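Supplementary notes for students who missed Thursday's class. We covered one full example, reproduced here. Read the sequence, then the structure, then the short commentary at the end.
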Amino acid sequence: MIRTRYTDAPHKDRHDLSNLKRIVPFLWEYKGRVLVAMVLLILAKVATVAVPFILKDIVDLLDSKTLPLVLPVTLLLGYGALRLLNVLFSELRDTVFARVRYRAMRNLSREVLSHLYSLSLQFHLERRTGGISRDLERGTRAVSSIMNYLVFNIIPTMAEFILVAFLLLGDYDAHFAIVTFSTILVYVAFTLSVTNWRMHIRHYMNRLDSHANAMAVDGLINFETVKYFNNDDYEINRYDNTLDEWEDAAVKSQTSMSILNFGQGSIIAVGVTIMMFYAAQGVVDGSMSIGDLVLVNALMLQLFIPLNFLGIIYRSMMHSLADIDLMFGLLDKKGNVSDKQDAVELNASQGMVRFENVDFGYQPERQILHQVSFEIPAGKKLAVVGPSGAGKSTLSRLLFRFYDVDKGSVSIDGQVISDVTQESLRQTVGIVPQDTVLFNESIYHNIIYARPDATEDDVFKAAKMANIHDFISELPDGYDTVVGERGLKLSGGEKQRVAIARVILKNPKILVFDEATSSLDSQSEQVILTSLAEVAQQRTTLVIAHRLSTIADADIIIVLENGRIKEQGNHQQLLAENGLYTSLWTMQQQEKDKQEIE
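Structure (token representation):
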């Protein structure tokens, strides 16, 4: 049985208040619009609260012993005008605030994505892409929801409550205000307590949702592997088992929501009923008119209608705050590689690379490199060979500063790379990786990605040097051919040649070839090697190779074994030593002779 990795622990330490404060700067870019929206909000609520008073006057006038000869036209027109103004001010508020809301969503999404790109390779190797994308999506939606709740629901309801309370205290007996305040306090206390109790169910649902989505995306990304092992049902069952837990949690969430809604409705019903008893008694004993009863009833219903939605809004706000916390959690992730405050631009005028007494391990308990020291003179070619797991590809990752060394240093032209900016370092170094992954875009897009300001002729020239231009030209869509997810519509050799064209277009000072011809047949390999030799002229080149025949012309060859340099020299010198390099060379030559015989 294959074990499923699921380490998403309950999220207990939320920072709701600080998260809300972090949203404010995104809103304040359009502070003028925010202020105008707040003024329109107040005007809309004034119009809303004024409606019951017009209604009271209409009822009292029609209920008077001396009936009017004509309808109270002015009051009726005023009633309609107030209703119209309420709608007008509310819609204007929404229109004015729309730019604030969507710009905040855009800027926040951009900042989170930018931060994710700034994190180190270690974070991205450990991440679950589907889970992160879902957290980001829910988080940006939650920011929009929070802004809507605050500006369009919570603040307006508070303003209306204050207006109604002031009018009740000013014009009617105190028990009306007491019943109003008591009902609202009981309602709020009940809502908060029950909602907080059921929030853990929602959090659990979110974690299961993210986990299921991560599994689905991971399985689809690795579609070929799933098919290789006939594991369609296995992947579907893993996904469905998680959704089964999510379904149970969702049912519990809905059940508890129904209990909450019933309790809220009961509190409101009791409060309004008590108010109507008092109002009816006032009409009976003559202290209140029919219009007063209508006014009190209208005010209370007008107040409790948004208050009823406030319960739903509070629950939604808690859900949104949970989603925002997950998103800001991404924003708070710290990479293990970052620029120093005083980092400077790398000035690679020559391109000399030096590793000095480098120790490194991906985990403290498993060291990969031990006291590795070598130098690549400017414009020279150094090759690294050795058995699998010797630490060859680790050298390229350290040169790109995807990781920092544990001990020792890596420098370019005498500048330690940890003292320069990562951007300037990576502008100086280009790589053709062993495992070429392409964007699900056109071939043209994947090549010009190295230098977006390049011309079409530059792209064609790079493709010709990589010996892939003719192949692309023969495709029905030519350079507009979409390569599929991770470039799966191309063969391994075709993908590598696209990668070679891409690095040729980048034109870096230092080149790294990590098994750059491993997916090519012998004929294509020779053509590519000729192109690479031309590209590498006047450039410092680090070649990580398995096939020794591809690096026999290197100026310096280093033989790594178990993370240590065992041998160093050129091809002839190493063969003369009759050591590990000679053993590897002999073995590969025998394999080559055997293949030729077959």
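Commentary. The two ends are 41 Å apart (CA to CA). The chain has two domains: 18-331, 353-597. If anything here is unclear, bring it to office hours.
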